Amino acid sequence: MDFKIAVLPGDGIGPEIIDQAKKVIEAVGIKFNHKFNFKQDWSGPLQLIKRGISAGRDSRPCRSSDAVLFGAIGDPNTIMILSKSTSRQGLLAMRKELGLYANVRPVSTLLL
Question: When you count CB atoms within 10 A of the terminal residue's CB, does the N or C end of the chain come out lower?
Answer without folding.
Answer: C
